[in-house]
Design goal:
Blueprint: H1 2-17, H2 39-56
Length: about 55
């Protein structure tokens, strides 16, 4: 269900802004409240930032 919501958002933005949209998601290790960011997710987020920075700059 969540994926379809993201698809709908991307589709809407594509139509409204007349541009290409790419959504990037990182699946959490845990979704418990007040849990710190897991090392795996932090690593994936850092890798995504590095990849996007090198692509966009």
């Amino acid at each position: 269900m969540t994926c379809s919501l993201f698809y709908m958002l991307a589709h809407y933005l594509t139509l409204e802004l007349n541009c290409k949209i790419t959504l990037l998601g990182i699946q959490p290790v845990s979704v418990e409240l007040n849990e710190p960011l897991s090392p795996e997710v932090e690593c994936a987020a850092n890798e995504a930032v590095e990849a996007l920075t090198s692509t966009l700059l």
